[in-house]
Amino acid sequence: MKVGIGILGGGTVGGALLQYLINEQAAIVAKTGLELEVRRVAVRSLSKTRAFPIPVEIITDRPEQLIDDPSIDLVVELMGGLEPAGDLVMRALQAGKPVVTANKELVAARGAELIQRAEEKGVSLLFEAAVGGGIPIIRPLSESLAGERITRVLGIVNGTTNYILTRMSEDDLGFDEAVEEAQALGYAEADPTADVSGADAAAKTAILASLAFGTWVSVDAVYREGIESIEPIDLRFAATLGYIPKLLAIGVETPTGVSARVHPALVPLDHPLASVRGANNAVFIEGPQVGQLLFMGPGAGGGPTATAVLGDIIDAARELLAHAQVAPRIRFAPGRLRDFGEIETKWYVRLEVADAPGVLALVAGTFGEFGVSIKSVWQEGRGEDATLLLITHDALEANQRAAVAALRSLDVVTEVAATIRVQSDEP
Amino acid sequence: MKVGIGILGGGTVGGALLQYLINEQAAIVAKTGLELEVRRVAVRSLSKTRAFPIPVEIITDRPEQLIDDPSIDLVVELMGGLEPAGDLVMRALQAGKPVVTANKELVAARGAELIQRAEEKGVSLLFEAAVGGGIPIIRPLSESLAGERITRVLGIVNGTTNYILTRMSEDDLGFDEAVEEAQALGYAEADPTADVSGADAAAKTAILASLAFGTWVSVDAVYREGIESIEPIDLRFAATLGYIPKLLAIGVETPTGVSARVHPALVPLDHPLASVRGANNAVFIEGPQVGQLLFMGPGAGGGPTATAVLGDIIDAARELLAHAQVAPRIRFAPGRLRDFGEIETKWYVRLEVADAPGVLALVAGTFGEFGVSIKSVWQEGRGEDATLLLITHDALEANQRAAVAALRSLDVVTEVAATIRVQSDEP
After folding, report:
1. Looking at the domain assignment, is residue A327 inside a domain?
2. What is the pLDDT along chain B (427 residues), one digit of tens a residue?
3. B150 to chain A: closest CA residue
């Protein structure tokens, strides 16, 4: 049976999707029974040269026309960004058309509202490609694990920063150098801010935590730190101590509430996430019944992302043909969001101190005042000064911060040169 | 909204599912909007003592009554085995009731027929729990990746044999000893044949290959070897050479056809599957668009399996409430099955030979006659005799076998003591 598809966006993913839908149409019909016919592709510029040329009879630069076109049964949004994508998606849902989107920024910012509108209209809003590129993670979370009380989500969800950190730690590149290389290879944008600041990862973390815990976690509620201030010297020290840096996405549910955060962390070398290299993504999902699941694969790129989009298209098309009044896959209930200060974390701290008797005792005593105990210490003297590396035990994030602030006011501490959180041994 | 559920089978998974549906009912309603009410549980013996007692008002030993009960909207089959499970599932579908099953044996043997009946009746037949326990793998394959042309499936799909092989290789246990320990821990049945013979893995491989390639692969078409003849001495040699033994499930699609097989293989220690220990499962899925995906987690047990079953129940219940006339998720087309002899494999061969000049040349020459070249050789002399270990390069399985048969007839070869296939370095 025929399903008319409109695609908003003719970039990398849109092009890969269009090409696949055209070239593999017979195979898709054979495997799914669905004739997916692309009837319009809306682009910003009609004159741009594209890797896969869009047939003239379907290209348009008027996205509203695509939404209103009665021959379009299903809308695919691949424009990215909040507007006009948000308005167009809302209008498509309002018109009773199911929407498939890869737009993590939009889903993280307005997901609750869009899902509600989709529910009112009895159509699907699907966004498998918004997190983890080609890795099926949204559908497993919202369908396969719909009955599980998920307690933790932990992963690497931004391939760009993972590539940069991999190059910095394995090949001793500086941050700027690694960013330039990532740009040259097409892994990083001309303006890499969204990736290196953790904003992209924060949007994905908000989506993962929302689906995992059934409480809508807005992207503003995700604590966020980027990788911009990671220095090569700390990566060398970390390697010596058996750690590798990763930008981690972490969501945790406890009886007292839900928390979500994104920050760099030193991961033990024998941790399963330590081996996730380059532009790959990996996500652990944990629950009391199911135990611990790991999903891993390419986190970005035209092919993988288009595959995830296509899976959603097929799912939505099946529902259309079943004339189903679609019930939402997951409902969101209000839940308490825990402040990051209430979460237990471990820290790596690099201090520049005076190389004098009693300094270590003073530093350890300061941590102790805030209930933070020290797991291990290394000192490297250089005449009158010394570098002191500490790794703390688990303690409240608020207390770790207070202890470090107190260290800054000690006379013997020249500089708190670096603080990086440390991930526990267990996955 | 209320959905009446009937469960066939009150064993480990049935008990875990019932307990969860009763204890977590409010949480499930909050998260999914579905009130899943278990109205009948059919068991073999009414008098058996159970970890989670089944309320007397819903227990029955008449499974047919459960199928016919008009208050049962959805049937969950957790009895296992071909009959009477197959007959009951067929009757439930015939009555227009969606069926969720964890029965890999049944799906592998009669899946095509059951799926066809479900299609005729416009209801779902879901079996996420049949492969990989709690790991979402069936839904990703049949939905998320429905549009991808999957070329390879590779994994560890039997936790019992993985536990046994892990103990044998890491702790030097003999096969019988490792089996006894697995039985004591509840990982292996009193009769471990289905696991150690590879039959359980073959059923799962048939299901994975069928869904991945869109061609129904019957379990009889899966080449199968078990782990019974693996000897500790070869595991010690393998460890020295940098390999660990795994029972691999492999499905491959090439332009000339589809093949599926299960056999022990030596896996390089730096291969991602080498680190899958104990009763865990892990599956790689590969396609030209999506690249390489890995799914990992607990492959068996009441909790994980019940979670997968529950995800299917929620999915089927959503469709029921949408009054959807369900189209099949995946269609199967006829495809050519390739004989295992046509597949390229690498072999590890242990020979007992006379320690005389020219023996190695003779052995290498014999392999060469069949187009098999040798990658590496180790020889250990013991007076007049010697042990010769060889690892071959990739060659046709049929040629590897013919070469080994020819070796048997050489005078200088006392015994072909072991042959085990070797997995390539790439995942």
Report:
1. no
2. 799 999 999 998 999 999 999 999 998 998 888 999 999 999 998 988 888 889 999 999 999 999 999 999 999 999 999 999 999 999 999 999 999 999 999 999 999 999 999 999 989 999 999 999 999 999 999 888 988 999 999 999 999 999 999 999 989 899 999 999 999 988 888 899 999 999 999 999 999 999 999 999 999 999 999 999 999 999 999 999 999 999 999 999 988 899 999 999 999 998 889 989 888 999 999 999 999 999 999 988 889 999 999 999 999 998 888 776 666 677 788 888 888 889 999 999 999 999 888 899 999 999 999 999 999 999 988 888 999 999 999 999 999 999 999 999 999 999 999 999 999 876 6
3. A307
Residue A418's CATH number:
3.30.70.260
- Annotated active-site residue in B204, B246, B346, B375: B204
A121 is catalytic: no
The strand pairing partners of B263, in sequence order, are B248
Domain that includes residue A369, residue range: 342-422
Q: Are residues B107 and B184 in the same domain?
A: no
Listed by number, the residues of chain A in 214-243 with a beta carbon closer than 8 Å to a beta carbon of chain B are 214
Q: Where are the alpha helices (DSSP H) in A138-198?
A: 138-139, 159-171, 175-184, 193-196
Of A139, A272, A301, the CB nearest to B140: A139
Q: At CA B180, angle to CA B244 and CA B101, rounded to 5? A: 80
Report CB contact under 8 Å: A139, B135. Answer: no
Residue B69 lies in a domain: yes
On chain A, the residues whose CB falls within 8 A of the CB of B273 are none
Integer angstrom CA distances of residue B290 from A31, A133, A291, B148 = 17, 9, 27, 7
Chain A residues whose CB is inside 8 A of the B324 CB are 319, 322-324
Specify the amino acid at residue A413. Answer: V
> What CATH number does residue B184 fall under?
3.30.360.10
Q: Is residue A337 part of a domain?
A: no
pTM, two decimals, is 0.93
Q: Specify if B335 maps to a domain.
A: no
B259 shares its domain with B358: no
Count Cβ atoms below 10 Å from residue B145 Cβ, excluding itself: 25
Rounded distance, CA A223 to CA A260, Å?
A: 7
Residues B317 and B347 in one domain: no
The domain tally of chain A equals: 3
Domain-ending residue, one of B297, B330, B357: B297
Q: Do B294 and A296 touch (CB under 8 A)?
A: yes
Alpha carbons B161 and B98: distance in angstroms, whole number? 33
Report CB contact under 8 Å: A136, B331: no
Mark whether B106 and B247 lie in a shared domain: no
Residue B318 contacts A, CB cutoff 8 Å: yes
Contact with chain A for residue B147, Cβ under 8 A: yes
Q: Which residues of chain B does A317 touch, with a Cβ-Cβ cutoff of 8 Å?
A: none
Task: Please check whether residues B46 and B156 belong to one and the same domain.
Answer: no
Contact assignment for A328 to B33 by CB distance below 8 Å: yes
Q: Which of B147, B307, B311 sits opposite A310 (nearest CB)?
A: B147
ipTM of the shown complex? 0.91
* Same-domain check for residues A113 and A225: no
Same domain, B292 and B306: no
| Cβ neighbours, 10 Å, residue B57 | 8
Same-domain check for residues B290 and B314:
no
